[in-house]
Write a structure and sequence with these properties.
By secondary structure, the protein is mostly helical. It has one domain. The strands form two sheets. It has a two-stranded antiparallel sheet with strand order 1-2. A two-stranded antiparallel ribbon has the order 3-4. A hairpin with a 5-residue loop joins strand 1 and strand 2. Helix 2 crosses helix 6 and helix 3 crosses helix 6. It is elongated and about 65 Å long. The relative contact order is 0.13.
């Protein structure tokens, strides 16, 4: 299944687990290795370009620019749906010096190749980069809220389970 990019193309949506637990991101079969790594396939210049998810090692190596982009993406989560695409592209554009090399890396292309794309092709590729790597950004953005909720629940559960101190007099004490 694909979603319209609004740019004259489509970006495949990532597959969700089925009842049997099978996942097939990027349109591969359940036995393919692409099950392990999210990817987006898009047609650009007569070829199918596969934009993959950054590996954990790549995420760590490029954590500072990715975290800065994630912080710039925070407004996306509170924006009306019709504004989100623009906010995503604006955030990526504001961090282009760091993000273009990463987008080229995960697309298996050079930065020069990316810079030479038409506007519509470049936006489609950046949206595929977002689609393949959105889990990193969502985790980064939601982490403080998740931690705060977990701490609040732990405090609440701790207060419920801790024994209250007794105020009754003990025999023989006076």
């Amino acid at each position: 299944m694909a979603r319209k990019t609004g740019l004259g193309g489509e970006v495949p949506q990532r597959a969700l687990p089925t009842a049997g637990g099978d996942v097939s991101p990027g349109g591969g079969t359940d036995g393919d290795l692409d099950v392990l790594v999210a990817s987006q396939s898009i047609p650009i210049r007569g070829e199918t370009v596969v934009v993959r998810e950054l590996s954990f090692g790549e995420q760590l190596a490029h954590y500072t620019p990715l975290a800065a982009l994630a912080d710039a993406l925070k407004p996306v989560f509170h924006a009306p749906e019709e504004e989100r695409l623009t906010l995503i592209l604006d955030a990526i554009a504001a961090h282009q010096e760091a993000i273009l090399p990463l987008a080229a890396l995960v697309a298996g292309k050079t930065v020069e190749w990316l810079k030479d794309l038409s506007g519509a092709e470049g936006e489609a590729l950046l949206l595929a980069f977002w689609g393949a790597n959105q889990d990193f950004f969502v985790r980064r953005i939601q982490r403080p809220e998740v931690v705060a909720l977990a701490l609040a629940l732990a405090r609440r559960d701790g207060a419920k389970s801790s024994p209250s101190s007794s105020t009754t007099d003990t025999p023989g004490a006076s």
